[in-house]
Structure formats: structure tokens, C-alpha cells
Specification:
The complex is a heterodimer of chains A (260) and B (268). By secondary structure, chain A is an alpha+beta fold. Chain A has two domains: 1-128, no CATH class; 129-209, Alpha-Beta Plaits, CATH 3.30.70.20. Chain A has helices at 2-34, 48-54, 60-64, 139-142, 148-152, 190-194, 207-210, 224-227, 241-244, 247-252, 255-259; strands at residues 71-72, 84-85, 116-117, 120-121, 130-133, 160-166, 174-180, 202-205. In chain A, strands 1-2 form a two-stranded antiparallel ribbon. The longest helix of chain A has 33 residues, at 2-34. Chain A is extended and about 100 Å long. Chain B has 268 residues and is mainly α. Chain B has 14 helices and five strands. Chain B has helices spanning 6-28, 51-60, 66-82, 86-90, 94-108, 110-113, 123-138, 142-146, 148-158, 163-177, 181-186, 188-196, 216-220, 247-251; strands spanning 33-36, 39-42, 46-49, 202-206, 257-261. A three-stranded antiparallel sheet of chain B has the order 1-2-3. Chain B has a two-stranded antiparallel ribbon with strand order 4-5. Chain B is globular, with a radius of gyration of 19 Å. Chain B starts with 5 loop residues before the first helix and ends in a 7-residue tail after the last strand. Classes of the chains: A alpha+beta (260), B mainly alpha (268). Chains A and B meet through helix 1, helix 2, helix 3 and strand 1 of A and strand 1, strand 2, helix 2, helix 3 and helix 7 of B. Chain A: InterPro entries: 4Fe4S_Fe-S-bd, 4Fe4S_Fe_S_CS, MauM_NapG, RnfB_subfamily. Chain A: GO terms for molecular function: 4 iron, 4 sulfur cluster binding; metal ion binding. Chain A: Keywords: 4Fe-4S, Electron transport, Iron, Iron-sulfur, Metal-binding, Repeat, Transport. Chain A: This is MauM/NapG family ferredoxin-type protein.
């Protein structure tokens, strides 16, 4: 009897230990995978966190894509397993008007609402990512004539425009610099695919990685619409150690100066 | 009987043809069965979804769409009636790997060397609980991130990558470490379907008058704890852990085992 009880306790303890251990390893692995941010998702994808919890990894979007753009992450891709992504330098998104990958999604991880304007599917409103120009390696910035990305852009003249600039050194040639307008750019990657440099000098990054945010504090005073934003601004009060002291004390404090 | 093991052949046909339909859908756009085992579409309209994956999504706090609820309900109802683990033996691609393992095990007589299994078959329910707990904590469907079932199946349809490593690990684990290790002890999906199919209508039934206690059924069965009544009582295999693979029916030379439909509504 006593031995039975001992054995039972030992077995239970062993099971609990095993479960805890595997739980730890398991969650560490999932954490590691979900931390990778540099993944381009199909059009209409929810925010990454919601996307990961909603995507059932069925690959229906991959099957629906007529250009084989979308891939499902395989073991070894270092991306959350089985989730759809694309690599624009290999195959960009060709921005089908009917967006076949989105309505087929059974879980709404690809949400039709996010790629619709006025209730109609509109691929131009997709925000898969945003194109970034590396002006150091872009040969157009060097003064060599190239407008490959500009010509490849499906929203020609809106998502990428060309900025002309005179070459002060020669006084002759002009620079024709590509400029991405991040509010229009969908992140399809056709520009990245078209880029002529060895490694693309214009490339697509996820929007939350590539874009900054000015916040509601900074307002264009000359733009009436933009001025309304200031109402949303919340006061930020920073208190440091120094600001607790009186100003005169702070001026008389020689401590830091004398240390050196 | 002309064929010695008709059910085994039927099972392989079922496993391989379902796989082929998925692969054809991906390569040629055939719309009979699209997607993969996580979620699919029959003829581009009827949704089917893995109920455990959906359960994890609910635990992870995802917004669940109607399509996926319908899909998961269809699958759950189907397996509720014919036995949950019919999925394991008739559909799941991992079954091919683990069956190969246990076949080699039998041929090489590993089982006679290692008679006592060191691990509990209830581990799968622990893993099942753990997968739901981790889904809640991490906000993703946790088992789907490591599941070799969806990894292998998805891999065969969409490209395997390193997925062959998962196949190899399970094969070697079952062959050398633990008999029927993955499917019979660990897999939480098997555990989930054990619970779903516990009250199913289609069951293997034993007739102890015909039984000569040769124990061939127990030797070949992947879940031989469910065959505890062999040679003792004439009752159906009631445990949900039975996969309805019908191997026991085939190997029984005394016809003591057969499928039967149980009337669950009969008054006791």
C-alpha cells in the first residue's frame, strides 16, 4: 500500500515536471518565431499579432494566388510555420483587381474590409508594406539615369515620383531621384523586383517597421485640416531629477563639473 | 476472402488519394478538395476545418468567422458519429510514418525485447491541455506552431523545407524509443479526437465465444489497451482511443472481431 502511494506520487511528480519542461521549451520556441517582424503578409492581412492568432495556416490564399507570389513558411524559413508571406525580389504581388487571395480566407485573417473602399475591393488600398530607397546605393542618386522602379510601379506617378535636381559639379546632368510616397505605396514590391542594382536599392519593409510617427504634437500650421489633429495631443510631462530642484540650485551645482 | 487485408489497403488508398487531391488542387487548381488539413474547401464551397486548431484560436482570443465555425462543426459531427480517431488511421499522413515504424518494430522483434512501455498513454491529454493553456498565454494557436501533422501535410502540398526532419524524428522515436510513441502517447490531436469519438456509433465488437486467444489483434493494435476484453467478454471496444483502423479485424483468423453499429438510443 505504502509503496503504491509512493509510486503514484513519484509518477505524478514526474508527469507534472515533464509537462512544465515541455511547456517552457514550447513557449520559448513560439515566442522566438513570433518575434520576427520582417515578414510581408498578403493584402488585407490583419495586424501581425491578430493575424498570427487568426490565421489557420490552410494555404487557401497561396492556392488562390495566380502568380505563385505567396508562400507558406516552411521549417527553416525562420518565420511562424505555415503562415503566408511573400518575398518581392523573387515574386512581387501583381495587385490583381479581384484580389483572389483575400475572399478565400476562411478565418478573415485576410480581411476584405481592409482592402475595400466604399464596399468594393480595391487593391490600391492594400498596405502590405512600404518601399524604402537606400539613397547611398541607388544609382539614380549617383546621377546615373535609371527609372526602373518608377516605371515598374503599378500606381505610376503616385506611389513613386521622380525628383529632378541639377548636378552642381558638372552643371550639366540632372539627378532624377525616386521618391516613395508612403501614404500611397501598397508595398507590392514590383519596384524591388525591377531594381537594377545587385542587391535591390529600393525594397519593401513592413509598414510598422519602416515608418515613423510624428505624433499629434507636431502640426503643419499652414494646413487647416492638419491643425485639427492638435486636439488629440495629450500632455506629456517629463520630470527628471534636476527639474525637482530649484533652477538656482541646479546652476550652482558644480558636482558634475568638478568630477572631471 | 481474396484479399488478406482489405481494410489496410482501403486505408492507404484513402490517405494517399486525399493527399493527392490536395496536391492537385495546389498545382493544377483542381477544386475538389482545396487547402490542407487545417482548413479546406470541398468543391470551392463547403468549408472544413480542424476543430482543435479552431479551439486553440478561440483560446488565443481570435475573432472567429462563421466559415470556420461551420467547417469545424461539420468535421466534429462527422467524427462524432464514425469515431474520432478515424482521422488518425484513415486520413492523417503521420500514420503512414508511424505504421512503417511499428511494422519494422514487429519484423525486427523489438517488442519482445522491450515489453513494458515506460510512458503513460495519458500524456496526450496533458499535451492537449498544455496546448490550450499556451494558446491562451501566447495569443497564437500554440500546437499549430509545432504540430508535425500540419507541418508534414502542409509540406507535402506546399513544399516541405526542413519538414523531413520532423518525419525522421517521429519515425526514429517510434522505432527506437517508444512503441507507438507519437500517435499512441503524445499527439494532442489524437487525444482530442479520442474525446470527440468516445460516443460514436461505429465500433469494433468482440465475440469471445469465437476467440481463441491467439492475441494477434493485441500484437498488431496501436492502442492495445482498448482491447482489454479480448477472450473475456463479448462487448464492443468502447474507448475513444480506438482508431477504427480495423487491423485487429483483419489479423483475427477466428472472425471474433468485426465492425458494428451501436444503438446509442436503446434503453438500458
Amino acid at each position: 500500500m505504502n509503496n503504491d502511494r509512493r509510486e503514484f506520487l513519484l509518477k505524478s511528480a514526474r508527469t507534472v515536471g515533464l509537462v512544465c519542461l515541455s511547456g517552457l521549451i514550447w513557449s520559448a520556441y513560439v515566442d522566438e518565431l513570433t518575434a520576427s517582424k520582417l515578414i510581408l503578409r498578403p493584402p488585407g492581412a490583419l495586424k501581425e499579432k491578430d493575424f498570427l492568432s487568426t490565421c489557420i495556416k490552410c494555404g487557401l490564399c497561396v492556392e488562390a494566388c495566380p502568380f505563385d507570389t505567396l508562400k507558406l513558411a516552411k521549417p527553416g524559413d525562420n518565420k511562424p510555420l505555415g503562415t503566408p508571406f511573400f518575398n518581392p525580389r523573387d515574386i512581387p504581388c501583381y495587385m490583381c483587381i479581384d484580389i483572389p487571395c483575400v475572399p478565400v480566407c476562411p478565418t478573415n485573417a485576410l480581411d476584405e474590409k481592409l482592402v475595400s473602399t466604399n464596399g468594393k475591393l480595391d487593391i490600391n488600398s492594400a498596405q502590405m508594406g512600404v518601399a524604402i530607397v537606400d539613397s547611398q546605393s541607388c544609382i539614380a542618386f549617383w546621377g546615373i539615369q535609371c527609372d526602373a522602379c518608377y516605371r515598374a510601379c503599378p500606381i505610376l506617378g503616385q506611389a513613386i515620383t521622380i525628383e529632378y535636381e541639377k548636378n552642381e559639379r558638372t552643371g550639366k546632368h540632372s539627378f532624377m531621384k525616386p521618391v516613395v510616397h508612403t501614404d500611397v505605396c501598397t508595398g507590392c514590391g514590383l519596384c524591388e523586383r525591377a531594381c537594377v542594382t545587385q542587391k535591390a536599392s529600393i525594397f519593401v519593409l513592413p509598414r510598422e517597421v519602416a515608418l515613423g510617427k510624428a505624433g499629434d504634437y507636431y502640426v503643419k500650421g499652414w494646413d487647416e485640416k492638419d491643425q485639427r489633429r492638435v486636439k488629440n495631443a495629450k500632455e506629456i510631462k517629463t520630470t527628471t531629477k534636476i527639474s525637482k530642484d530649484k533652477a538656482i540650485d541646479s546652476l550652482n551645482d558644480m558636482g558634475d563639473l568638478l568630477d572631471d | 476472402m481474396i484479399l488478406k487485408n482489405p481494410y489496410l489497403i482501403l486505408r492507404r488508398v484513402s490517405q494517399i488519394s486525399i493527399m493527392t487531391l490536395y496536391i492537385l488542387a495546389n498545382i493544377y487548381g483542381l477544386t475538389i478538395l482545396q487547402g490542407n488539413l487545417s482548413s479546406s474547401l470541398i468543391f470551392g464551397t463547403i468549408p472544413l476545418s480542424d476543430p482543435l486548431a479552431v479551439l486553440q484560436m478561440i483560446f488565443a482570443g481570435a475573432l472567429i468567422s462563421t466559415n470556420i465555425i461551420v467547417g469545424a462543426s461539420i468535421i466534429t459531427m462527422f467524427y462524432f458519429f464514425i469515431g474520432g480517431r478515424v482521422f488518425c488511421s484513415w486520413i492523417c499522413p503521420i500514420n503512414l510514418i508511424t505504421d512503417l515504424s511499428s511494422f519494422i518494430r514487429r519484423k525486427l522483434r523489438f517488442d519482445t525485447i522491450q515489453k513494458k512501455q515506460p510512458a503513460s498513454r495519458n500524456i496526450r491529454y496533458w499535451v492537449l491541455a498544455l496546448s490550450l493553456i499556451l494558446s491562451t498565454i501566447l495569443g497564437v494557436s500554440a500546437f499549430e506552431f509545432i504540430s508535425p501533422i500540419s507541418m508534414v501535410h502542409r509540406g507535402l502540398v506546399f513544399g516541405l523545407g526542413f519538414g523531413w526532419a520532423a518525419i525522421l524524428i517521429i519515425f526514429l522515436f517510434d522505432l527506437f524509443v517508444l512503441k507507438n510513441g507519437w500517435c499512441g502517447h503524445i499527439c494532442p490531436l489524437g487525444g482530442f479526437y479520442s474525446l470527440v469519438g468516445k460516443y460514436s456509433f461505429l465500433k469494433v465488437t468482440h465475440n469471445h465465444i469465437k476467440c481463441t486467444e491467439c492475441m494477434k489483434c493485441k500484437e498488431v493494435c496501436h492502442e492495445n489497451q482498448v482491447l482489454s476484453m479480448i477472450g473475456k467478454e463479448s462487448i464492443p471496444v468502447l474507448s475513444g482511443e480506438c482508431t477504427n483502423c480495423a487491423r485487429c479485424i483483419e489479423v483475427c483468423e477466428d472472425e471474433a472481431l468485426n465492425f458494428s453499429i451501436i444503438n446509442r438510443f436503446a434503453k438500458k
